[in-house]
Amino acid sequence: MAGEGRAPLPVVPLPFRDERLSSWLERIADVYLVSLAELQRHVGWSRPALQIEIDPVQTYMERIAAATNSSVERLFAMTFDAAPPRYRSLLRPDSREICPVCSRGMQRPQRLRAWSFAFSFYCERHRQPLQSPDTRGASVLSDVGSACRGAAILSNWAKGGETAVVPVDAAISLLLAPHRKPSPPAPWELARLARSDQQAHAMELSRPCSRPVLGILVPEFNSAVPVYNQLLPRTLPGLRDAPFAERYAVAIGVARLLKNPAAAVARILEGSDEVGREKVMALIDRWPAGIRNAVARSARRTRGDCGRMVTNARFSHQRVHGPSSQDAWRDRADA
After folding, report:
1. pLDDT tens-digit map of 72-88
2. DSSP conformation class of 264
3. Which of 68, 195, 198, 290 is the most exposed place for a label (fewest CB within 10 A)?
């Protein structure tokens, strides 16, 4: 078998703290001016490095450890093997985000495990935004404070914690729900599109567009990404593959919603049509009783149909419990 019985590689760069296994292996390959595939054949593992990060195989890890004079335990700590299921479901294995300060002067910047999470936007060490090839809509979504708070809430929840008054998955379900019937873009929503492009894509632009609740709590998202170009999934797991602007806007929306759920829901209902209000109320009915009561009290101060709808609604008394924090993921990587 390839790799067995061979002497360890004479020069191996040290891994950075929290560096991904695939990133480190790429940097080792660079030392010998070979591709990662060539290093793989020399050492003797057969699956792509991105796959063994998610699902490491003991035999392959032992071969890599022998070739690099490392311990198997340390190599496992460079993978996502110990990550909770929620966290793993929101990993982006192909992500190439980098910190401009961490990577300064490096031919191949390192990629950290934390940066592979769908809602990682900043380098914690340098407090710098991560650079990404996907810059669509990034300049318009400028509420950095809310994005950071939302990202922290989502990371804590994915690792097994739950400190929000409204369960995080329930909050995201609300943000992705429609607040009114799908409809084609209005004339003002096509203002940034050249007339020639409108004519060339008339068929596509005549199709109904989804109108998610996110657009009410994060109205700048509709400016950052036109409604006809938005790629929001319908469910939480789909956010892993969503573009940067969609994920960033969701983090902002989570922070704004959980800061004052009652006020946020009142605002959502004000901007919803009858169909949207029914969907929103059905989701809120699953929230903890205390929050539902606060929403009802807030609605009594709101004039119009939405206020009467919430006030007259019959909420169930089922309480929603967040997951225990006892399963929180602890970083096992060596410094």
Report:
1. 999 999 999 999 999 99
2. H
3. 195
Q: Which helix (H) or strand (E) holds 123?
A: strand 122-123
CA atoms within 13 A on the CB side of 182: 9
Owner of token pair 């999470």: 117
Q: Under a CB-based contact definition with an 8 Å cutoff, are residues 289 and 319 in contact?
A: yes
Residues sharing a CB contact under 8 Å with residue 79, sequence separation 6 or more, in sequence order:
20, 21, 52, 53, 54, 56
**314-332 confidence digits (pLDDT tens):** 444 333 333 343 334 444 4
What is the three-class DSSP state of 239?
A: helix
Domains of the chain by residue range: 21-82, 151-312
- Indicate the pTM of the whole model: 0.85
Contact 65, 76 (CB under 8 A): no
CA distance 232 to 20: 28
Please report, as a single letter, which amino acid is at residue 84: P
C-alpha span between 247 and 307 (Å, rounded): 31
